[in-house]
Each structure stands twice: as structure tokens, then as C-alpha cells.
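S.,

As promised, the magnesium ion run. Input:
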Amino acid sequence: MTARSLFVPTTLFLLATFLIGPFLIIVAASFSAGETLSFPPQGFSLQWILKVFTVESFRASFAMSMFLAIGGTAAALVLGIPASYALSRYRLPGAEIIRTIVSAPIIVPGIIVGLSLLRYVVVPFGVGITLALFLAHTALILPYAVRVVSASLDNLRSDIEEAAVLLGSSRLGAFFRVVMPNIKGGILSAFILGFVTSFNQVPVSLFLSGPGVRTLPIDMMAYMEIVFDPSVAALSSLLAFLSIGIVFAAERFLGFSRYV
Amino acid sequence: MSDQSYLSLEKLTLAYGDSVAVADLDLSVRRGELIALLGPSGCGKTTTMRAIAGLLPVKSGNVILDGEDMTRTAPNKRAVGLVFQSYALFPHLSVYENVAFGLRLKGMKGAELDSKVQSGIASVGLAKFADRKPAELSGGQQQRVALARSMVMEPKVLLLDEPLSNLDARLRLEMRTELQRVQRETGVTMIFVTHDQAEALSLADRIVVMKNGAIEQIGTPEDIYNRPTSSFVADFVGFENIFALEGGGLKTDNGSVPLSVAPGLEAPSAAGLAWRPRMVTLGTGPFRGTVRGTSFAGHSREYLLDSALGPIKAEVDASEPVHVSGSDLSFDLPVHKAAQLSRIA
Ligand SMILES: Nc1ncnc2c1ncn2[C@@H]1O[C@H](COP(=O)(O)OP(=O)(O)OP(=O)(O)O)[C@@H](O)[C@H]1O
Ligand SMILES: [Mg+2]
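Predicted complex:
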């Protein structure tokens, strides 16, 4: 074999190791029988996987994360679907500016978003922790919602709405009868993307979390500062498999990658 | 309401923003008439149809349908059907549900709905395809679903925007007959847009020729084909030798050339005259020309002549004697055969 023919496979192998390696280490560590987080794992046991379900704070923060991921994504879609519709169907003055503003939370580093929300919104207006987290997550998901929903709207010809109107439907009725059913896949994709984005969000949540109200990733960090046992690795593995499962299902049933 | 004007467009002006697309258009359509809207790209055909359907707000003027002023009526209250060039079928619904869509909105259900939808689908020959999605149909089949979807609503006027332009030649012919049949059986008033003059001539009761957002001529297919009134329409239907009249003669680049008016006939008072290549007589006549080019077209032979009048196109039976390229010959433009034009562009 020549050096040239080895180059591509080697590069691919290194890339895969770089991407998947840490994940495999975490998964291996979560089946350890030892008392501390370590690699290679000492022995094999399911005790840390089972322990995850008994930690009270994990349960509370998991519930909070689920609430933010589902509620925040739903809210982002309620705002994002009409916004995408307006952006794609009407020639709005300043449409480009609106697009830019809507995608700002993707571009601006999370730490800055978190800090400025805390400094200029939460503190001065005395917004509650849960509400602050909810608003922040909605804003973070909105760009994804608008982008994915816009993509599927752009694939849909607008004359079917006119056809529906000429067959007796109102404009609003046409939206629900012929637009929504045809962008269903895009909406579900946006939902999954938003869900995963919110669930894995750290920097913004870090600033906004407060006493007794935390998202799961923040709670895991706090837990690790006190207890250095493999249950954090076990929880990470569980979450990773949950995400993989969701994305796989989405791709399988909806052709998710068409919309992203 | 008079039967003469079931649908009337009165001084209709339509604009996109500040740019006027159709200006002061007047048109009366009889009940049950089949009208073809013919004209080059961008002349305002689609714009006019969208305004009749209510999809485009009217800038000024009125749309009167069946004695009612519809100018400000919402499109879903007009009882006007529109078959889009792109078909605009609902991709998530089956053929059956596409056709049932409007009837359901009217509140029809149960056996009545089912029998209407079934007969609508059957009337366009798609009974076997009722459960298919639009994406699983050919262009011609989709076209027919779009037609059935509009027809089951029993619209007062059915508008068709280039209904046949996406089909291949054979399907076009089939759909042409189909449209004619549907129109005869239901007596629905129809306006269809086309680029294709053969289609307009063969289908329509009357043809409306449009140019730059205005009507150039309205007439029966015979009128349009044999008696165009403007140089634009004349050119459109194949009068390839068009001349303005000036001081009783044909206007050319080198001044006016006197006409040969047969004894007993009056000199024409029109603004211009036009001849089809077929109408040009070769071998006799007051004009002389040189054969510049010739081509054989099966049953006939076409000539391009250079003359004092400018280039002349002539077409004669293939059985006539052949004139070779470069030969000099006399020819005639018989005035009594010419189309008399009142407007020269
Ligand atoms: N949405 C629009 N915005 C601005 N101008 C438009 C719009 N639609 C059409 N026009 C303009 O209005 C004029 C008439 O267009 P229209 O679509 O009615 O032409 P048409 O006769 O249907 O042409 P075609 O045969 O190509 O379909 C054109 O000059 C066109 O550029
Ligand atoms: Mg058009």
C-alpha cells in the first residue's frame, strides 16, 4: 500500500476516534464496579445505572429539563411557525433584519446570552427562576424552529393555499387545512432539534439556575463537585442513548435530515 | 342580468404596486361561452384571471358576475373556479379527498358527498385512481384531478390558466377534447388562457387577444384567423406580409408603392393591409421580385422574395412550376384577399 492510499482511512479513523472516543469511555465508565469515576472501569456492575434513578435532585432537575425542553420548544414553535410563514410568504420590509435577529441566539456565545439575561432582565425585573429559564430556552430554540420550519415552507408551493381559498376555505382555514399537514415533518423535526438543544444547554442555564431550580446538566456539574462516583457517567450514557434513540426514530420515520 | 353579459369586466385596471399590468380592460362573456385568452408572455393573462377569481385586488373598475358586483367579494365567496397551471393539488390528500375538499367545506357529507365525488372522479376517467396521492399520478392525470376538483363545485365561471401547457402533444389533444366535452355537458362558462393559437382556434367560441395589458381584438376564431384588425393580431395568426397604407399605396422603406386595385373595386381605406404567404400570387402581377430563398414543405413550396416592397413571403402549391434561387419573377398582392388592419403597431 502507498502512503496515499493509507491517508484517507487513517484520517477517517482518527476523526471517528476523536468524535466517538470520549462517548465510549463514558459508557464504559458507567458500568464500573468501582467507587470513583475512572477509566478503564474496575469490574462490571449495573449499580451506578440503578443509582441514577434514586438520586432525588436528579429526578427534580430531570423534570425541570424536560419541562424546559418540551415547553420551551412548544413555545418556540408557537412563535416560530407564524414567523416563518410570514417570512416565506409575504415580502416584508426588513425581512432580512428579522431573520438575523431571530438567529442571534445561535451566533452569540451562550455565556454572554446568559450573563446579559441575568444582568439586564432577571435581576432588574425580578423575574422568577423558572420563568427566566423558560424564556431563555424559548429564545434559544426559536432560531432552530424558524430555520427548519422555513425550509419546509419554502418547499411547499403557495398556490395550494389559493386553491383552498377558491374552494371555499378562509385564509386561516387554508393554513390549517393544507399548509400545516404538509409541513408536519418539518415541525416534528424542529421539535426534536429544539428539544435536544434545550436539554443539552449549559451556559445560559448556568447563569439563570438558582436555589433548588436547576436543569439536569447543571445539576450533574454540581453533583460532581461533591461526589465523584460513576453515577454521573451512567446518567450521561442514559441521556446520550435517549438522544440517539430520538434522532434515529426521527430519521427513520420522518426523514429528519431533509429539513436540517 | 342580460344573457349577453353573464360575466363583465368593466374598465378593469390591475397593478402590482405602482406598475400597472392590465389597464382599462372591458370584456363581456355570455353564459355558457368558452373564451380563450390568447397573447404573448407577460401580457397580463394570469393577472386578469387572478382578478376575476378575487386573488388579486382590483385597482379600479368592476367585476360583475351573474348580475352581482363581485369587485370586493372575497375569493372564497365568488363561486369562481380556477385550475392552476401548476395544478395546485393538495399533496397530502388522495385524489378522492382533493375532489371532496370544497364539497366538505360546503357542509356536504355522507352518501350525497360520496356520490358527487365519485361521479366527479369518474367524469375525468380516474375512478381507478381515487386512492392515489397526487405525486403518484402523471401530469395529465393530475390535470384532470384539478379539473374535477373545480367542476364538482359547480362554479359560475371556470378559469383555466394554461391548462394544457405542461402536457405532451398527444395528451394535449386528448385534454382538449376532454375540456370541450365537459364544457358541452355542463354548460359551464369557461375562460382559458393559452399561448397556442391552434388551441384557441379549435376550442373557443370567442378569442380575446391581449397585448401589453390591453385587449387587442375580440372575435370568433374565424374573425381572428381571417380578419385580424391590427398588425399585432395579423402577425400572430400568420399574416407574414404586413404593410401600412400611405397616400393610397403601400408604405415601404423607399416611399409609397401604388396598389393594384382591380377595376370596379374601391381603394381600401384601412390603416394597413396584410397577406398570408398563401395569398401571394406568383408569376403574374404588377410587382417584381428576386427569389432569395426557397424551401419545400411537402404539399407546398415557400419562397422568400426581394422586392421594391421589401422582403415578401410567398407559399404556392408544390405542383406549381419551380422558381430557382436568383430568378426574377412578377408577383401580386391581391387587395381583395388582404386583411384590412385598422391599427399598425
Ligand atoms: N407578482 C408580481 N409582482 C409584480 N409584477 C408582476 C407579478 N406577476 C406578474 N407581474 C407582471 O405583470 C405583467 C403581466 O403578468 P402575467 O403573469 O399576467 O402575464 P401572463 O400573460 O400570464 O404571461 P405568461 O404567458 O408568461 O404566463 C408582467 O409584466 C409581469 O412582469
Ligand atoms: Mg401566466
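The interface with chain B takes residues 157, 159-160, 162-170, 173, 177-178, 181-182 of chain A (CB under 8 Å). Chain A has one domain: 55-258.

- D.
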